Write a sequence for this structure.
């Protein structure tokens, strides 16, 4: 089954404790992206990757890191999480970067206390 | 700057009525305007998209219209059903020489009353 998977689905952590949210897709997609969803703000792009070893900042990159060492994986790293990073996070992928459907993962709900 | 505005934020309709959600975008948008539906506890899913070379596109009970001159596009759902209840997001691509961003609107929560 073609899909985007994220782990963990739920995470509660404390300020400053490094964490990684994994994202994997099995569709051989070139483009992958991370979004955060907050009430009233819709989905905001954090980082995106057009292909292996190619990443770029989205609209809200502060406090996040990403890497794209393999085509299928695109982990999101929070080196020192803060409470304002409490949010619902989605990973997405698409075949190419321009005007192709993005497939979203099921989401990761992160709470930073 | 790159911006997509979406209205209304909430919409309640009677089953069988139509629902319309409107979005406007800022300058320099690209040529691709997708609409996503997000059901409770799930990630967004594409329901329809439109490219700037057409003014309207239909898929059964769903239609999208685009007015590039006025920089707005709309989602129309006819004969609404309870399973249409969800959050709907419009989006627009903003692309440069080496960048590509999909900017989303703030979302519309649609409630279809049985």
């Amino acid at each position: 089954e073609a899909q985007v998977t994220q782990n963990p689905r739920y995470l509660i952590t404390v300020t400053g404790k490094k964490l990684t949210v994994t994202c994997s897709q099995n569709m051989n997609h070139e483009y992958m992206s991370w979004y955060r969803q907050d009430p009233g703000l819709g989905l905001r792009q954090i980082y995106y990757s057009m292909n292996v070893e190619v990443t770029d900042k989205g609209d809200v990159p502060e406090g996040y890191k990403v890497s794209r060492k393999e085509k299928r994986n695109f982990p999101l790293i929070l080196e020192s999480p803060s409470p304002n990073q409490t949010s619902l996070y989605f990973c997405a992928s698409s075949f190419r970067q321009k005007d192709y459907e993005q497939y979203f993962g099921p989401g990761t709900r992160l709470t930073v206390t | 700057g790159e911006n997509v505005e979406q209205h209304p934020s909430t919409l309640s309709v009677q089953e069988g009525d139509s629902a319309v959600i409107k979005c406007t975008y800022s300058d320099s948008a690209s040529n691709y305007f997708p609409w996503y539906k997000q059901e409770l506890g799930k990630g967004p899913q594409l329901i329809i998209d439109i490219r700037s070379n057409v003014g309207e596109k239909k898929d059964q009970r769903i239609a999208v219209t685009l007015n590039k001159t006025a920089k707005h596009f709309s989602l129309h759902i006819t004969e609404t059903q309870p399973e249409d209840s969800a959050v709907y997001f419009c989006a627009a691509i903003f692309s440069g020489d080496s960048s590509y961003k999909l900017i989303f609107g703030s979302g519309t929560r649609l409630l279809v009353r049985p």
